């Protein structure tokens, strides 16, 4: 009998959409999302490097107005998750890293400074999460 | 002979599948941030007082509080206009005696701030800017001190309005 155990990767995010509601910058100087759960399932070689990255589609965009996506930061909890970081649209940022097969899980929150200098609008960005297992 | 061939073929297949080079999955999350119009104004002093003085020696009395600092914070559309105005509710009044509100003038400092004269008839522009941001400046008030005034303690209320278009 032969059992084939191939590399597999499955990523599940608790939310597919995150919304920051408008707020007075003096009262709420930092927008913070509810925790977004991240469930990772990966099968890889012994001590294979499982990596979860996030890459933004661009800056937060509302017509001609933008907010730098590098000001959109995260704080994460869970073994193997990068405790804090800033999003980037040019280079994927490592949100988690593990050695070998397993099913780690954690959560992360996203934060954005709420500044008076922003132009009014509804700003959008897409965050692309990629899980890889060699 | 045939059975050996099959066994070898299975072994090779297992080796090939065991070396699957890569597995990956991508998920997207969309983030929306609503930034609406907001305006907030703060003054360093809510009261101004002009002390009594001899009109010959002090023809223009400066408010005892000195310069008051105004901080205007507003969020608007790109190139949207932000305006700060002030208007008196009435003339300076002490019982039946009045002094025109226009006897009060101010000298301003700070980007976007203007000097001006108070009016009870129409709002006067204190400052104007383009685009979102937090700005601050000062107003120093002066009262024209004339011999013709009847004695009394005169009062009026000034209303500041910060608006973002």
For the sheet with most strands of chain A, the description reads: 6 strands, antiparallel
**What is the terminal separation of chain B in angstroms?**
88 Å
Please give the number of β-strands of chain B.
Answer: 12
Q: Could you list the spans of chain B in which at least 5 consecutive residues all have pLDDT below 50?
A: 1-20
Q: How would you describe this structure to a colleague?
A:
The complex is a heterodimer of chains A (134) and B (165). With 134 residues, chain A is mainly β. Chain A is 0% helix and 54% strand. In chain A, strands 1, 3, 4, 8, 9 and 11 form a 6-stranded antiparallel sheet that branches. Chain A has a 3-stranded antiparallel sheet with strand order 10-5-12, with no helix packed on it. Chain B has 165 residues and is mainly beta. Helices cover 10% and strands 47% of the residues of chain B. In chain B, strands 2, 3, 4, 8, 9 and 11 form a 6-stranded antiparallel sheet that branches. A 3-stranded antiparallel sheet of chain B has the order 10-5-12, with no helix packed on it. A two-stranded antiparallel sheet of chain B has the order 6-7. The longest helix of chain B has 17 residues. Chains A and B meet through strand 1, strand 2, strand 4 and strand 12 of A and helix 1, strand 1 and strand 4 of B.
Notable traits:
heterodimer; A: 134 residues; mainly beta; six-stranded antiparallel sheet; three-stranded antiparallel sheet; B: 165 residues; 1 helix; 47% strand; disordered N terminus
Summarize the model shown.
The complex is a heterodimer of chains A (134) and B (165). With 134 residues, chain A is mostly beta strands.
Write the layout of secondary structure elements.
The complex is a heterodimer of chains A (134) and B (165).
Chain A: E1 8-13, E2 17-20, E3 30-32, E4 36-43, E5 49-56, E6 60-62, E7 65-67, E8 73-77, E9 84-86, E10 93-99, E11 105-113, E12 121-133
Antiparallel strand pairs in A: 1-4, 3-11, 4-11, 5-10, 5-12, 6-7, 8-9, 8-11
Chain B: H1 2-18, E1 23-35, E2 38-43, E3 60-62, E4 68-75, E5 81-88, E6 92-94, E7 97-99, E8 104-109, E9 116-117, E10 124-130, E11 133-144, E12 158-164
Antiparallel strand pairs in B: 2-4, 3-11, 4-11, 5-10, 5-12, 6-7, 8-9, 8-11
């Amino acid at each position: 009998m032969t059992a084939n155990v191939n590399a597999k990767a499955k990523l599940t995010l608790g939310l597919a959409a995150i919304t920051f509601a408008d707020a007075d910058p003096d009262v709420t100087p930092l927008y913070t999302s509810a925790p977004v759960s991240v469930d990772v399932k990966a099968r890889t070689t012994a001590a294979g490097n499982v990596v979860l990255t996030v890459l933004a589609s661009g800056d937060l965009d509302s017509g001609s107005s933008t907010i730098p996506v590098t000001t959109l930061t995260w704080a994460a909890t869970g073994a193997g998750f990068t405790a804090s970081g800033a999003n980037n649209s040019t280079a994927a940022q490592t949100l988690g890293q593990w050695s070998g097969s397993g099913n780690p899980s954690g959560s992360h929150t996203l934060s954005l400074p709420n500044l008076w200098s922003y132009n009014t609008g509804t700003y959008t960005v897409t965050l692309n999460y990629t899980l890889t297992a060699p | 002979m045939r059975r050996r061939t099959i066994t070898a073929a299975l072994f090779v297949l297992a080796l090939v599948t065991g070396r699957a080079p890569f597995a990956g999955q991508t998920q997207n999350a969309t983030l929306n941030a609503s930034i609406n119009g907001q305006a907030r104004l703060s003054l360093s002093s809510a009261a101004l007082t002009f002390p009594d003085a001899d009109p010959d020696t002090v023809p223009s009395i400066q408010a005892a509080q000195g310069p008051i600092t105004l901080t205007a914070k507003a969020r608007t559309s790109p190139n949207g206009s932000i305006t700060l105005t002030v208007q008196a509710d009435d003339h300076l009044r002490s019982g039946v005696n009045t002094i025109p509100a226009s006897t009060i003038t101010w000298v301003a400092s700070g980007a976007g701030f203007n000097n001006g004269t108070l009016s009870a008839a129409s709002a006067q522009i204190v400052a104007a800017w383009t685009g979102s941001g937090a700005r601050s400046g000062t107003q120093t008030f002066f009262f024209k001190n004339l011999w013709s005034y009847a004695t009394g303690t005169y009062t009026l209320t000034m209303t500041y309005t910060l608006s973002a278009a």
